[in-house]
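Deliverable D2.4 — example input (structure tokens):
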């Protein structure tokens, strides 16, 4: 059983630099302090390195209240001419139930352990389900089919950066200590849906009981106690850290004070789960859960939010 959720209160730092205040629009200030990171509850994935539960100290920082939207990403592309990895490759992974079989250019069998992922020619952030699809009515939805490299490029253009894994988790917890979800320990408090995840029997029946069968607006559902939206479900979010299931285990200054992950690796951390997560196979919309993907990888359920350092007074 998860430990009771306990509120943690601290004053938010002031932002005094005028230029930085412009950058900080739409961001949440997280005060310096420590928090309990990870989990040792019975529903954790041991191989993912969720444990041990540990006290981690962080300096103050800013983090986006919501994931970057398709509208925001479009502005970045228009301004810079950035071409995403999916566009360079000419295809990306789309969940099978969202693919129009008439579109063609569909490749099966590239992910044997997850046959519900189809490689679709032409799928990218502009056309999330491939040719014929569009984001014209999804300006407030999270941008998807963005690789870690695409996300890092956007963050740099915006004067920001990707959050470290520790920064992401502390902010995602919303001020609650050791809670399972950003709002507490009960998945549906008072019978209310609090996030966008799979409802039904994965991977063939999604009832959409939470109101969505794919992405939802980035500010859908109630924010957590710090004002962050959708840190459980909707889309996985890229973090700055290289992935390791064991780097953080030994207690040291590097792993407990402003940790930034291993110095190198093969894949990057993703956090938060997505609209495809379900308790039956991928209970990774818990706030301590973690996963990973390659820096050039893109799918229809991965996005990101940005972070930034707080300038000194």
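Example output (designed residues):
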């Amino acid at each position: 059983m998860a430990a009771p959720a306990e509120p943690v209160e601290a004053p938010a730092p002031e932002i005094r630099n005028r230029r930085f205040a412009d950058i900080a629009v739409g961001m949440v200030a997280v005060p310096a302090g420590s928090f309990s990171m990870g989990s040792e509850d019975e529903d954790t994935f041991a191989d993912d390195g969720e444990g041990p539960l540990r006290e981690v100290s962080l300096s103050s920082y800013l983090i986006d209240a919501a994931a970057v939207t398709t509208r925001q990403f479009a502005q970045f592309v228009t301004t810079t001419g950035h071409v995403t990895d999916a566009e360079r490759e000419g295809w990306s992974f789309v969940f099978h139930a969202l693919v129009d079989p008439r579109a063609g250019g569909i490749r099966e069998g590239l992910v044997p352990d997850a046959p519900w992922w189809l490689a679709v020619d032409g799928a990218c952030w502009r056309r999330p389900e491939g040719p014929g699809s569009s984001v014209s009515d999804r300006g407030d939805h999270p941008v998807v089919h963005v690789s870690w490299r695409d996300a890092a490029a956007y963050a740099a253009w915006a004067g920001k950066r990707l959050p470290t894994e520790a920064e992401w988790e502390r902010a995602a917890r919303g001020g609650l200590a050791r809670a399972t979800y950003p709002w507490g320990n009960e998945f549906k408090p008072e019978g209310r849906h609090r996030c966008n995840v799979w409802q039904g029997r994965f991977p063939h029946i999604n009832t959409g009981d939470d109101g969505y069968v794919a992405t939802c607006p980035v500010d859908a559902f109630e924010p957590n106690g710090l004002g962050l939206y959708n840190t459980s479900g909707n889309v996985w979010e890229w973090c700055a850290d290289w992935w390791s299931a064991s780097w953080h285990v030994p207690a040291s200054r590097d792993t407990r004070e402003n940790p930034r992950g291993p110095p190198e690796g093969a894949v990057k951390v993703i956090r938060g789960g997505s609209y495809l997560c379900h308790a039956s196979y991928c209970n990774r919309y818990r706030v301590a859960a973690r996963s990973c993907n390659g820096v050039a990888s893109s799918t229809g359920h991965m996005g990101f939010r940005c972070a930034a350092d707080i300038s000194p007074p």
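Residues 1-10 have pLDDT under 50 and may be disordered.
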